[in-house]
């Protein structure tokens, strides 16, 4: 047996997604000897199977939908959707799922990249096993950064594990769309992808175990989406608990506890994501085997593990690319001793890129009340806030504000540009801007963000 190679760099970064790559690159820029490790593609989920390719699909679906709105509003249109150019665009954006450009980007900054599975094997020690079973032992002298991300999680439904179900990976890579798709999970991923492919002729049915879609967002958002998506032909079953899933070689068959029997050519599982801390060997850090995230302080240091930092999904602060990048900056400043502001999480933004978009920041009304806050809320309809914004013309949406103590503690911007309007609301929540300042603001007319001013009046 060949002995493992041993290396003692200044820093090791496990997980080279957006945040991990940023940390590794910036430490290399600072003159450190840095080794970045990942068994998958450098760049992580976002550029290959998440944010970027899914938004290409969403944008293409939006174009199809807009073309269908021409009759009765702007003339005559004939729409013949075609998935092939969408797939080609996704291939181009992902370099056909090749990370050479990303690897070269990192190594050109002076870093070293190892492709392989990393596991913590002792205090300050990492074992990396490559595809050829070669082993490299890394013992970082100054910093170990864990940015391992998450993987799709499948619920323990009898029969599911033995079927060729899809995750977002398979759907993103699909050269052709199935005639029908059963989506297990009514969260952001399932709804974004489900709506996009429905617009290209795929018959989509969404199954959600919770009583409503987007269960973590405001109920008004779920009501809006169900109303709009239903007009496009998507079918929904909420409060639906699966008891079995089967596959006969051609179709998936799902049975719900209430008795519904559903069938489709393909099944997309979008029921959340999970961190595999056991596979990482996190017990070396004193983390319980059943932990769902690594405990970190406001400088991203793993509690009880000197010299170890963690960023991104593994910290449990939100599985968003922007969260990983935010925490990467905090961690790099801490590692290099540069100080600056610690991490804060009272104004974390999130966007579901459906049509209409659902942008939200901070606390929902339910979360604020659960914290015992003296809550005031206000909801304004987009179409009602500006004449000419007609329901059913693609302008459906609302602004909901959640206030306590004279400031906003949460907000939702739902509409054609919900994610963009969210920017000003995120700033207001982050800066704890007094409501009096928002009330004194002049809002341009006619814009979607003008509805924020109308909502402020309701407080």
Overview of this protein structure:
The chain is of the alpha/beta class. The chain has 3 domains: 5-43 and 99-150 and 275-335, FAD/NAD(P)-binding domain; 160-271, 3-Layer(bba) Sandwich (FAD/NAD(P)-binding domain); 349-457, Enolase-like, domain 1, CATH 3.30.390. The chain is 30% helix and 24% strand. It is built from 15 helices and 23 strands. The protein has helices at residues 18-29, 45-49, 51-68, 83-93, 100-107, 168-173, 188-198, 219-231, 277-280, 321-335, 365-370, 382-385, 418-430, 435-439, 450-457; strands spanning 5-7, 11-14, 34-38, 112-115, 117-122, 125-129, 135-138, 143-146, 151-152, 180-184, 203-208, 235-238, 242-247, 252-256, 261-264, 266-269, 273-274, 308-310, 349-352, 357-362, 376-381, 398-404, 407-415. The strands form 6 sheets. It has a 5-stranded parallel beta sheet, with helices on one face. α3 crosses α7. The protein is globular, with a radius of gyration of 24 Å. It starts with a strand and ends with a helix. The model has no long low-confidence stretch (mean pLDDT 94). Residues 348-455 form the Pyridine nucleotide-disulphide oxidoreductase dimerisation domain. Residues 10-328 form the FAD/NAD(P)-binding domain. It is an enzyme of class 1 (oxidoreductase).
